[in-house]
Amino acid sequence: MSSEPQSVIVPIFNGSSWIDQCFNSILQQELREDVFLEVCVCNDASDDGTVLFLHKWVHIFNQKKIKLKVFNNESGTPKGVGYSKNRAVGISNGAYLCFQDIDDVMLPNRIREQYEKARSLPRDTIVGSQFKRVPENSTNRYTQWANSLPDEKLHIQIYTSHGPTVIMPTWFCHRSVFERIGGFSEQGKGTPEDLIFFYKHLDLGGKVYRVNQCLLIYTYHPSATTFSVMEATIWKIRLERLEHVVLHNWPKFTIWNAGKQGRKLYNSLSVESQKKVTALCDVDKKKVGKIYTPFNSDTRKSGRSVDILHFKDAEPPFVICVKINLTNGEFENNLSSLHLIENIDYVLFS
Q1: Is the pLDDT of residue 297 over 70?
Q2: DSSP letter (8 states) at residue 135
């Protein structure tokens, strides 16, 4: 079977420090001879010499029969990652899209492995992969979660603060996935465009798959666009979907965590959802048996009070606001002791 054209989609803002290593990793891909590969870039008003690097790489890629296409945002004002991805896709011709961040490095077998897997799966599948984080140990909990989450939970454990269960820099998908959603949010800096896209994909019945081998070197550094996204924005998006998809169908539920995060969730809920909360639960003896009454300092009014129970006395379903892998296994053992089923008896909102 002949190969279909594939487009590597690269958004760039001030990427001169990273372009050589990123593009070299694309050159080193182990591809079949009949593969048509193009690299499609949006230069989002960079002012650091990115343009000169791109001119150089047009010729380098051309020597390898790879076409480098560039869309330049010449407004002088960066418009964000979502805008850049959309413009790069807009100038592409590939049947399959391989998303690549400029500060990351794809391993030589990335495109081949993901392309072969994508062709064997339904076209409405986002195919991700495992990754190696550099510097090592920079985000241990996140890396462990993303690389080891069981396959059957890729569609389920979607409300944690970690974000999409397959990380955006490893996404590979058929063009129709992008077109069905209509592209990424272009609300600009601070917008988690990957999470918004991911939720829309799932809402439309899209599937998620992870190639269980490392195909990307994922770089951690302070200037990464990830750090421009406000935690409050991600919280709001996660909460809206939790209420719309999960809590809307639950007549009542318990919030697992009577501490800061559990109380934050309770106070963030809509009035309708808050009325469904039967209790908060915890293991802390100083909290169990007490009553939590929220107080609004702006209105100077108290809210609806709820009991705080021991987790063994509380009734599912639970919205769990306890971060995993932080209690030396104590929380995980407590949860396991109840013999619950994730996404039926509980969801993780941690």
Answers
A1: yes
A2: S
